[in-house]
Amino acid sequence: MDLVKQDALITHVRERGGHETQVAVTLEQFFDGNDCEWCIAPNRSEDLTLGDVRRALVELRGHPDVHDVLVELDQLEFGTYPDDEWPYASGAAVITTLMPDEVDALLLEVEVDPSGGPASSLDWLVDAPAIPAGHHYVGVWWS
Description:
It comes from Intrasporangium calvum (strain ATCC 23552 / DSM 43043 / JCM 3097 / NBRC 12989 / NCIMB 10167 / NRRL B-3866 / 7 KIP). With 143 residues, the protein is of the alpha+beta class. It has helices at 3-15, 27-31, 50-61, 100-106; strands at residues 23-26, 66-73, 89-96, 113-119, 136-141. It is globular and about 40 Å long.
């Protein structure tokens, strides 16, 4: 665990009201320095690692029909985070022209639950990206 990056992420999220609401962060902000296996997709198979989830989301972001992929952080759980904890994320925001079932098909290997959407706005998510014309939000979740 990179404690400097952990602190930088937590500070960034707190400054945006993350103790009361969900905040979107980049894949790099969420995964760089993070080795907390249960911080996203906690009920996945034991042989599926945090690195596998990261790789799948980075590959999804590189898909020609995907504009961006951001991690949707849940509200911050702790005032002071333990050294082995990372802010928890229940899902990812995918800005895309793909439909939810198409996004799910691209993420089969990382055991996502059925995605939500499409939606034309992300008013509830702090630091959500603008949605370009012709695109929409698809919410990817893990239980």
